[in-house]
Design brief:
267 residues; alpha+beta; Ubiquitin-like (UB roll); six-stranded mixed β-sheet; two-stranded antiparallel ribbon; 18% strand; Box C/D snoRNA protein 1; zinc; Znf_HIT; isopeptide bond
């Protein structure tokens, strides 16, 4: 027994693999090691030690995950009239602000993530927002961002040399060390085909709502923060001599592209 070192061991903990001789020693070892005694189904097993039992365990684990995900997708709240009314209200309010908001079917990653709400008392959107800093391979998710907040204020906690969080500032050093005039905020144009990806450049001095007007948004806005001084393959519409944004005929193909990406992500 690895707890009392007196008696012959009779039990082995499925979690930490410690040997015990009695129920008392089992309880002592759980208390001392903060062990719950439940086998870790995702613990690493080397190839040399991998057996048919491990394979069967992994297979059953994946089946359990699949059943849990399926049960969540079939939950009554997902298909309730209240949920459908909420989505209809969000799309309708966005349309009133000259924003074309598209929502994805149940089960898609962006649909599950989206926490955007509309406050009817304040007549204001509180957006779920994703910020991507490609030069540092960093990504941040913001929730409850008011639509009357300027993009400059939204970015301050991330790239402002004075107001940014020290940990975030260190990770985004290349941005905080660059002049603010070099920072560009881009948003992908959703109503284009996959072989013609273009971005709109947003105005940091204007509010989030003003920047989203006239745009197509799938679930929530995703903003790319890039630097002018660094070479980028992100083509900005109007700065490459290309034609204006395509009409709505290509929206279906673009939406299909996003949905395919979501399916791969979900898989």
């Amino acid at each position: 027994c690895e707890t009392c070192s007196k008696e012959e061991a009779k039990y082995r903990c499925p979690r930490c693999m410690k040997y015990s001789c009695s129920l008392l020693c089992v309880k002592k070892h759980k208390l001392a090691l903060s062990c719950n005694g439940v086998r870790d189904k995702t613990a690493f097993v080397s190839v040399n030690e991998f057996t048919d039992l491990n394979l069967l365990s992994d297979y059953r684990f994946l089946e359990d995950v699949g059943r849990t995900a399926d049960a969540a997708a079939r939950h009554c709240l997902v298909h309730s009239p209240a949920t459908k009314r909420l989505l209809y209200c969000l799309r309708n309010k966005a349309r009133g602000c000259n924003i074309e908001l598209k929502t994805l079917p149940v089960g898609f990653t962006k649909r599950r993530e989206n926490s955007t709400t509309f406050n009817s008392v304040e007549n204001k959107f509180y957006w779920h927002l994703k910020l991507i800093f490609p030069h540092c391979h960093a990504e941040y998710t913001l929730k409850g961002v008011p639509d009357d907040k300027t993009l400059a204020d939204i970015l301050k906690p991330y790239i402002d040399p004075v107001e940014s969080d020290p940990v975030v500032c260190q990770r985004l050093k290349i941005y905080t060390a660059s002049p603010q005039s070099d920072v560009r905020i881009l948003m992908k144009i959703e109503n284009r085909s996959r072989n013609s990806v273009r971005y709109n450049e947003l105005d940091a001095s204007r509010t989030l709502l003003d920047n989203l007007k006239g745009k197509v948004i799938i679930e929530y806005p995703t903003l790319f923060v890039v630097l002018k001084t660094l070479k980028s393959d992100m083509v900005v519409l109007g700065q490459d001599g290309s034609e204006p944004a395509e009409n709505s005929d290509s929206e279906s193909s673009s939406l299909s592209s996003v949905e395919e990406g979501e399916i791969r992500d979900s898989s």
